[in-house]
Amino acid sequence: MWSPTEEEKYGVVICSFRGTVPQGLVLELGETVQILEKCEGWYRGVSIKKPSVKGIFPANYIHLKKAIVSNRGQYETVVPLEDSVVTEVTATLQEWAVLWKQLYVKHKVDLFYKLRHVMNELIDLRRQLLSGHLTQDQVREVKRHLTVRLDWGNEHLGLDLVPRKDFEVVDSDQISVSDLYKMHLSSRHSVQQSTSQVDTIRQRHGEACRMPVPHHFFLSLKSFTYNTIGEDTDVFFSLYDVREGKQISERFMVRLNKNGGPRNPEKIDRMCALFTDLSSKDMKRDLYIVAHVIRIGRMLLNDSKKGPPHLHYRRPYGCAVLSIMDVLQSLSEIKEEKDFVLKVYTCNNENEWCQIHENIIRKSSTKYTAPSSNYGLIISLQLLRGDMEQIRRENPMIFNRGVSVTRKLGFPDVIMPGDIRNDLYLTLEKGDFERGGKSVQKNIEVTMYVLYADGEILKDCISLGSGEPSRSAYHSFVLYHNNSPRWGEIIKLPIPIDRFRGSHLRFEFRHCSTKDKGEKKLFGFAFTPLMRDDGTTLSDDIHELYVYKCDENSTFNNHALYLGLPCCKEDYNGCPNIPSSLIFQRSTKETFSVSTQLSSTKLTQNVDLLALLKWKAYPDRVMDILGRLRHVSGEEIVKFLQDILDTLFVVLDDNTEKYGLLVFQSLVFIINLLRDSKYFHFRPVMDTYIQKHFAGALAYKELIRCLKWYMDRSAELVRQDHIQEAMRALEYLFKFIVQSRILYSRATCGMEEEQFRSSIQELFQSIRFVLSLDSRSSETLIFTQAALLNSFPAIFDELLQMFTVQEVAEFVRGTLGSMPSTVHIGQSMDVVKLQSIARTVDSRLFSFSESRRILLPVVLHHIHLHLRQQKELLICSGILSSIFSIIKTSSLEGDVVEEVEMMVESLLDVLLQTLLTIMSKSQSQEAVRGQRCPQCTAEITGEYVSCLLSLLRQMSDTHFQHLLDNFQSKDELKEFLLKIFCVFRNLMKMSVFPRDWMVMRLLTSNIIVTTVQYLSSALHKNFTETDFDFKVWNSYFSLAVLFINQPSLQLENATPPKRKKILDKYGDMRVMMAYELFSMWQNLGEHKIHFIPGMIGPFLGVTLVPQPEVRNIMIPIFHDMMDWEQRKNGNFKQVEAELIDKLDSLVSEGKGDENYRELFSLLLLEKIEQETWRETGISFVTSVTRLMERLLDYRDCMKGDETENKKIGCTVNLMNFYKSEINKEEMYIRYIHKLCDMHLQAENYTEAAFTLLLYCELLQWEDRPLREFLHYPSQSEWQRKEGLCRKIIHYFNKGKSWEFGIPLCRELAIQYESLYDYQSLSWIRKMEATYYDNIMEQQRLEPEFFRVGFYGRKFPFFLRNKEYVCRGHDYERLEAFQQRMLSEFPQAIAMQHPNHPDDSILQCDAQYLQIYAVTPIPDNIDVLQMDRVPDRIKSFYRVNNIRKFRYDRPFHKGPKDKENEFKSLWIERTTLTLTHSLPGISRWFEVERRELVEVSPLENAIQVVENKNQELRTLISQYQHKQMHGNINLLSMCLNGVIDAAVNGGIARYQEAFFDKDYITKHPGDAEKITQLKELMQEQVHVLGVGLAVHEKFVHPEMRPLHKKLIDQFQMMRSSLYHELPGLDKLSPACSGSSTPRSNVLVSHGPMSPESIKLVHRHSPLNMLGSVRHSSSSLSSHTSSETGNLVILTDSSVGETAEDMYHMQASPSTSSLSSTHSAPSQMINSAPSSARGSPSLPDKYRHSREMMMLLPAHRDRPSSAMYPAAIMENGQPPNFQRALIQQMIGPCKPCSDPNLSVAEKAVPAAPSSWSLDSGSREALPFLSAHAGSVLAPPVPPRSLPHGHYSLHFDAFHHQLSDAPPALPARTLRKSPLHPIPASPTSPQSGLDGSNSTLSGSASSGVSSLSESNFGHSSEPPPRTDTMDSVPSQAWNTDEDLETPYLPVRYSLSEPDVLESLKSQPCRSHSAPSGVIPQDTMDPPALPPKPYHSRLPNMENEEGMMIEDDDKHRPLHRKVSQPVSAGKEEQARVAWEHGISEQ
Asked: How far is CA 1899 from the centre of its chain?
């Protein structure tokens, strides 16, 4: 059976339990459990971690601990019965453990390791504390270490500061708020102290630290490694002060044997000393540790002959020093010993031995010798702090080692009363001795004895140094051959005090002979008594002693024989009559000096002091003796304190009248002496004396009389020093008075009680009299009053021994009340007065409630005055906090209602006022950084806040009731409420308490919420109805809102244990305040309207607090607001506007969540349902909810690590919502700028410009003033718009979208022009011109476009189930884009098919991405169709302003014909229309509309063949221009693919499918299309012919068989086509050479072998073309150079070898890094192609047709990436070449990627004409020339005039009219090259002078030249055709026009060529179609673009002269010539500024 446990209540898990049994509780090692029941080895209970989960666990897994159980039963609480510090450590370690691991994750490795170390230390210290084996002192020390570490860790982890008292956490309920504040301050200080590792004692408010901390040096000699002496040595260590040149400590002596070890084996490892009592002042002195080494042995170390071996002398050896200043820093940092090596230097001259240490310190290196090695004395040092007791306690190990305590010479700074000392320090200074008739000087040794009066030698009274026992005799060291030795050796004489009087010292002088006997011969002596006859001890001075002669036989048995002699000069002067017949004669020439220093607490050297102690011996000198006491030193007085006091009181009793005043003054002097910090510790001696030894029973009368007499005189005297001294001594005087009265009373059984009381009364009247004097005129009086006030509080305790509490309180009240209450008595006096009050409050008297009732009013009165004046705030706050502390303590015991009432009345208002003033000051100081330090301001604020809170916390209901009732009027109440609300608001706004003072902050909140609950009823009662006051209510609401939003109350952010703790103690205070707020709102009634819209934002902020209850309470208020505004205005526009505005800013600050959105919608819709205005309400709520969705998405994007794309998409979505749905212009503009900034960050400059343009479009060119907004200053609308335009133009420029910037330039220009601002106009025009130049000259990459579908509910709201088209980045292909999208949405799954997803995918909780490339469909087709527009311009329009895109998907309709699948191969073409054109404000836009069309098999076939022709032309052109180097494989594969497929069924399959009679009859509507297909097939034949010719030239010998096979297959293909397409026979006239004059396409009938192909004349422009380089910077995206430069000649043509054609030097583009579409685009593309079922594709290249659609259209890499550069000039082609090429061939580009397979290249992007464009189907012109070099168009026109057969490609044929309008001729500005002359008979002469690529309707192609090419007639034939007769703009040249050709050099850098460019003025010419100006000029060379170089007549290099007739041929077109001939610069200018003018 389960039974409740009695004892087993609390335990710790000692083994983890997995909870594998039913009802098992999972427990981790170390968890604590509360046990409820037990049953057979099992317990049932809960884990403290999760108290809600109950379960069972094995009893043996639990270690039980004792605990206190309260409230036994179901809800019992268990507190472990252990030290609270242990409990805290346990809880803290558990909390840290979680955070510690996070540190590692966040890469805070340094803190991670430090914290681990601290946690280990805590565990170890906790273990020690739990062991129970520590002494109380050790426990205290362990707790100190624990709390320091806890606080350190909490601070570094950002946890809360724990307020403590005596290491234990304080309970905030048990102490006043002021005390709690102080504890926080001290805890914080200890944290900072532990962090900075500086042990300093905190000094608050300037209190001096009473006790100076002594320092001690621990020195230990480890070894003497340099001991090569071979003799015993004595080492003496001492501390030496360099500045004063003297030792300041005793010596520490170590005796070592000849091996360097201790002579006494017991001393091993115990050679250590403690140099004690060094003051802080000493530590700043320049101290050294000095070690003197004295050897004990022979006279001379190296001379064994000198002296017998048995005689040992003390001889100087060496010295070592160590500067303490140098090592102090390192010693202070570490807490253990540190080793140092001291080198031992030897003295060069023994005579200077006494100065060796000074010489070493001064580095006088000539006077000593350094050791040969670095070794020496190895010592360790440690610095210790604290008094000796503490040192003994903290470092027991040191004292266990037998440390020698080595004292300071003289007394320490602080003389302790129990410190008994009687040491005389004697220094052997020097001697001067006679030579004594010897040739060498003596070796003198001094022996010293201490003899008692009876002549006995005192034993053990001589100490050479600490560390060795004392001895009876002293032998000095011997200086070799020195008659004037200087010793400087200090000896300590510890003579017992009883033996001191009568003792004397005797010094014996011996000469130590070094002869064989080595005797020591006595030759003299000296002596000195220790005490003089008057009883004073030998003075601290140098004493020059007389030397008396004697010899070895002299006897000193009868010491009286010499004691009668004078020992020194002073002695001699004292007894002049000395008989000369004495046994000892003085040696007048010899002297001997010693110095003494007495450190004794028993002996005095002062005559005056001795006279006082023996006053009875001199009765007539008593007055004088008493007067001289002042001159006795303090040390002497404290030594004889008790004796002196006894004497004084005996003297007083002896004759009160006579000596009374003098004794009083002496007593005052002694009392004040004890106030000195040096003697402060003698106060207990004085106290003991008064209590135990004082016997002056009658003294009190005289003391009171004298005191009163002094006070009464204070008004009259000018000098008041003695009065002030008496005032300072008041405390001890009263102690003497009271003790004396007690003794008297005891002796007389209480007689004269009344007289005593009345005398005290009178004394107090005198005190009041002194204090009431006006001291403003007298400074001395101020000091007297100050002295009195300072001492006054100290007498209370004495008075309490004689009087009752009430009586003393009355005395005190009267005294304090007598002080002037004005604050103007002078600042210093104010301070003293308040300090006196503070000490009164802190005194024991004030702790009695009886005295408080009497004293509080006067104390509060003075404080009130100072607070009103804002004076001495810090002291006042200290007094107040003491009062509150006492009252809080008393309130726990008894009743304090009355006192609190008093304080409320006196203080509450003035406290509020003070706080407001301080707070406003501190705010202004934050701005200005005022004079007072911010630390002080913060401290004062904190003090006063804690005082106010203490007071409010003590107030009960009755206090509040009285307070509110006491207000005379509502205005007073209003003012009070405003003040208190304002203070509370500031408390929360200013964060008076630091963030980690959680205890303080929570207590503050609790007091505020309680106070507000009391005050809100007063507010409601007094200011609601008629007396409604907006200001008070507004203040109240603001306070409530601030309160709920306080960071410290947001429990969601706290850890679970902390949250539980707070909720248990205070509950959720936000909910309490929210209820209060709601009820007050309801109380407002009709006045609610005053707070609309003002309170909407604040209330919204409250509802966004993540506390469900607060939200439920507060959200309905919005319905209320809407309702009230609806009633008043008929709508709720204000609520709507404000709510939307504030929602934006609050959500962006991180508030709100999805739950809030749902709750907001739910609660409000529910309320609105019943309203009459429900429709508008519902729409508003819906709109706000949708806004919230977007705002939350936006915020999540912004704060997460989201990609730029998501952020931009989110912002666009939100911006559009503001514009379109809720029309909030300001918010819209804000988001425009946010979006712009994001674009700039992502370097999307074009998009940034479009974004800013949105704002610009909202502005007008007006002078309306605009306010400051965002980063714009206040300015006129015109200025803002101008600034915006300039910025937008700048961004368009950076984004290379110059075409978008130009209209803005124009708009600005119009404005500048209208204002006559010509400077700006000039600037903007130049800018515009620069943009035109940039368009023509700078390369731009064409982007890819991708369609992305976002499917699934997991996507953000603005993407969900939508499809977008995105503009890719530069060089970004489909794979890269797909990768980027998947990395942006890591959860997303990529869909592998292009089909539209079904509902299951759309509604699933996942993310699906569907991505494929799409082709742009340009809107601006006009410009793309213009023949003369350069490709650079067209390329822009192909990929900009695009709103439509398409992609294709092949499929079979109906039954699939297995024989010929093309019959049923359809294409599904999807066209996507976007919401906005790209580029725009985003890189992607949503798809607005989809259109699906199906392309029939026939149309598909037409497109496939057309694309294949285009691809072939492009490839052939590249090989012709040698853009493809070396490897011919690509061409081979391509030709093989087409020819082989054609022979084996490719084109044949189309023939089968669509030329079949059966098909034609079934589809009569397809006749035109069938004709088109036929024409395309014929064209393919011609293109293949050219291709084979090129192949012939480049093919490798090993590949010849393949070439031959291709030729054969081509013949078969052609014959099969002739058979199928009889129309080809019409070309026969060309074969015979009798072609009509305007025939421009001639094809040979002969076999298409290389031999049969005759190529262009060697000097034709075509040949020249080969020698020029490709343009290096004009690769624009979709276009390629014109490729059909080959002209096929018939057999009867001019007979040049085919080789000549290939003498051209190919030089591909070198710097055109542009992402160009290649004509053979990537295999998977939107256009139908042979890859999707075309027979021309070999099987091995056929891929899945469905999948092909998903891959991106291929773009060629820039040519420079593929081919090495040819001729370069600084990385660019030579300027002239550049210009020439620009004119001749326009932007030529490499058109294919060698990395791709043929199959991949096989599919162009779209049906295209002579173009490389996969997307915009733009045909480019071929180079066309005069008769001999005419290039044939590849596609036949729709209706051919007689005699013509033109193979003409027209991509847009079905969209264009038959005859496009002729274009006006244009010339190239500043062009050095000439336009093409038009043929007078050409129907397309509208192309005059155009410098542009031809559009799709301009044709050029492969042409054969007839025999009559060079025949000519004198006149051009009349023009017979019109534009209408030819539907296509083919260039037809007249056969009769023969143009002379100039020789062309192969290197364009040759000077002749440059010279030949002679200048001619440029003129623009425009002529109508057919009207040709007749200029006599040379015909064009080659026309890829219609401008070409014309070279003047000159001789051919090969000697060929040009025919005369040719010179006079009329030109067909106007030609511009260069201005200056032969200059590269000219060509460069033309290149850079080549913008054609209309």
From this structure: 65
- Exposed / middle / buried, residue 1695 (Cβ in 10 Å: 0-12, 13-18, 19+): exposed
3-class DSSP state for residue 1503?
helix
For the record, the structure tokens of 1012 come out as: 């507000």
Angle between helices 1298-1314 and 1277-1294 (to 10 degrees): 150
- Is the CB of residue 1683 less than 8 Å from the CB of residue 1894? no
φ, ψ at 106 (rounded to 5°):
-85, 10
The residue among 1943 and 530 whose pLDDT is bigger is: 530
State pTM to two decimals: 0.60
Strands 1389-1390 and 1408-1417: parallel
Ranges 557-561, 744-748, 1817-1821, most confident: 744-748
42: phi then psi, degrees, rounded to nearest 5: -125, 150
Q: How many CB atoms lie within 10 A of CB 1643?
A: 24
Contact (CB, 8 A) for 1784 and 1823: yes
The distance from CA 1945 to its chain's CA centroid, rounded to whole angstroms, is 67
Highest mean predicted confidence (pLDDT) among 301-305, 557-561, 1395-1399: 1395-1399
> Are the C-beta atoms of residues 1427 and 1887 closer than 8 Å to each other?
yes
Write down the residue that tokens 């061409």 correspond to: 1531
pLDDT at 1086 over 80: yes
* Omega before 1093 within 30 of 0, i.e. cis: yes
> What letter would DSSP give residue 1999?
S
Q: What is the 3-state secondary structure (H, E, C) of 1426-1443?
A: CCCCCHHHHHHHHHCCEE
Distance, CA of 1688 to CA of 1701 (rounded, Å): 11
Asked if 726 and 770 count as a contact pair (C-beta separation under 8 A), the reply is no
- The candidate with the shortest Cα–Cα distance to 167, out of 93, 83, 91, 95, is 83
Helices within 245-312 (DSSP H only): 280-284
Q: Would you tell me how many other CB atoms lie within 10 Å of the CB of residue 1968? A: 12
Residue (of 318, 320, 271) closest to 291 by Cα position: 320
**1988 contacts 1661 by C-beta, under 8 angstroms:** yes
Distance CA 843, CA 835 (A): 12
Segment 243-279, tens digit of pLDDT:
999 999 999 999 998 888 888 888 887 899 999 988 8
Give the E-state strand segments of 1190-1234 in sequence order: none
Distance CA 478, CA 445 (A): 5
| Beta partners for residue 808, in sequence order | none
> CA 217 from chain center: how many Å?
44
What is the structure's pLDDT at 936? 63
**Residue 628 · residue 468 · CB < 8 Å:** no
User: What is the per-residue pLDDT across 1192-1237, written as a single tens digit (0 to 9) for each?
Assistant: 877 777 776 666 667 777 788 778 788 877 777 888 888 888 889 8
Length of the chain: 2038
Q: State how far the Cα of 2032 lies from the Cα of 144, in Å rounded to an integer.
A: 82
Query: How is residue 1928 written in tokens?
Result: 């296509």
Residue 1479: asked if its preceding bond is cis (omega within 30°), the reply is: yes
Q: What span, in angstroms and rounded, lies between the C-alpha atoms of 1238 and 1197?
A: 12
* Beta bridge partners of residue 1834, listed in sequence order: 1847
Reported as a single tens digit per residue, the pLDDT across 550-609 is 887 777 777 777 888 888 887 776 655 555 556 788 888 899 999 998 887 777 766 667
Q: Can you read off the two tokens belonging to residue 955?
A: 């107030």
Say what the pLDDT of residue 1811 is: 33
| DSSP letter assigned to residue 1836 | -
Helix 1174-1199 to helix 1154-1168 angle (10° resolution) is 180
Structure tokens at 800: 């309490």
Instruction: Supply the DSSP symbol for 1419.
Output: S
Query: For the sheet containing 473-475, what is the strand order?
Result: 473-475, 444-451, 504-512, 520-529, 542-549, 586-600, 422-432, 486-493
CB 508 within 8 A of CB 525: yes
